[in-house]
Structures are given as structure tokens and as C-alpha cells.
Amino acid sequence: MKIICIGRNYSEHAKELGNAVPDKPVIFMKPDTAVLKGNDFYIPEFSNDVHYELEVVVKISKGGKYIQKETAHKHYEEIGLGIDFTARDLQSDLKSKGLPWELAKGFDGSAVVGNFFKKEEYNLENLQFSLLKNKEQVQLGNTKDMIFKIDDIIAFVSQYFTLRVGDLIFTGTPEGVGKVSENDVLEAYLEEEKTLDLRIF
Fold first, then answer.
1. In three state form, how does the secondary structure of 87-119 look?
2. 152 Cβ contact partners less than 8 Å away, ≥ 6 residues apart
3. Beta-carbon contacts of residue 23 (< 8 Å; ≥ 6 apart)
4. What is the distance between the alpha carbons of residues 201 and 184, in angstroms, rounded to a whole number?
5. CA–CA separation, 177 vs 65, rounded Å?
6. In 3-state terms, what secondary structure has residue 70?
7. Cβ proximity of 112 and 85 under 8 Å
8. CA 55, CA 74: separation in Å to the nearest integer?
9. Where does 63-174 show beta strands of DSSP type E?
């Protein structure tokens, strides 16, 4: 199982980090060891600035290569929410040197994945999702604001990587990302359904 992540897929998030809005999907990956086990996230010792990034996650149910946009919807049946934890201080340092981001994005426990739901239960073109930190809403996103839609992402990614059953695609985060601290509690909602409940240590 591989975890494919889309960066800067909401224009307001790109702007809040001072990045240009891309004309093609920005791709990075996390190893399968990044998936968090359980509901406790431990801030790694190598970072003093770990940020949450809430995202809609797509689970691939049918593999493929060179998938066309028109048939991309046949390659996934479930969606959910996930948190892409990012060591922002480390990422900034790596970016300033023109180096890859993997150390800041792919560390153990950096990919939080909640429950999955049948995609037919939702309008994927207008799907609201939100993140609360200590009961205060910090992120509110809607898939209608995606620069690249889910089917576009699948078509693009499959030109480069063969998709396999069980692969996860993190589709990008809206504005409002921020730092986590010890004892914070994060709760994620897909529409009105709570899908994640996470404590920070």
C-alpha cells in the first residue's frame, strides 16, 4: 500500500504558506509506516513545529495504469478523512536547500486515517469537512474548492504510478493549518459525521 499526497490543492492554503497556485498537481508520498496506529500522536523529537493538515482521503478499490478521467470513478468506492502531519520547521529548511520533503512528511505516524464511507453517501463535488482543535474549529473545507478534482488526480497520478487496490490518496488540505501541542485534542468531521478523534502527546 502506498500513500500518495497532493500538495497545494486549495488556492487559499497555497497562499497562506506563500506558495504559487500550481497548474499541475503537486505530488509527494508517504511510506506505509507513516500510518498512525491508534488515536495517540506523539510529536517527534526532531521538530518543534508539527502542523495538522486535514484532507479528504480516497481508497483505491481497482488498480490501473493510464486511467482516463472519464473512468476514474470506477477505481474507488470509499472516501474518508485523514490528517497529513507535517514537520513545518524541517520542511522549510529542506525547501530552502532545494531538497525533497520526505523527512518532514513521511515520518512514522504522520498519516492519520479515519473511517471510510461509501462514496455514494455523499456529493463529492460539494463535500464539507472540518477539523476542531480543543473544540474550536480551525479548518473548514469543501471539495468544490479543490483546484484538481478527485477524478483528475487519479488520472494524473496513474500516468506515473500504477495504482493498486488499497492505495490511499490524500487530496490536499484547505486553509487553516496550524501547530499542534501536547494535550491538544483533534476531532475531524465529514459533513456531520465525526471520523477522527486524536490526542497529541
1. EHHHHHHHHHCCCCCHHHHCCCCCEEEEEEEEH
2. 25, 69, 72
3. none
4. 8
5. 33
6. helix
7. yes
8. 21
9. 76-84, 86-87, 111-118, 128-133, 136-142, 168-170
* 28-73 pLDDT per residue, tens: 999 999 999 999 999 999 999 999 999 999 999 999 999 999 999 9
H or E segment and range at residue 157: helix 150-157
User: Cell 508520498 belongs to which residue?
Assistant: 29
pTM over 0.70: yes
Mean pLDDT of 193-200: 97
Q: How far apart are CA 58 and CA 82, in angstroms?
A: 10
Cell of 193: 459525521
Read off the pLDDT band of 17 (50, 70, 90).
low
Average pLDDT over residues 149-177: 97
Report which of 3, 16, 4, 14 is spatially closest to residue 147, judged by C-alpha positions: 14
What is the reported pLDDT for 11?
72
Per-residue burial over 52-68, b if 16 or more Cβ lie within 10 Å, else e, is bbbbbbbbbeeebeebe
Chain mean position to CA 124: 16
- Residue appearing with cell numbers 509527494: 28
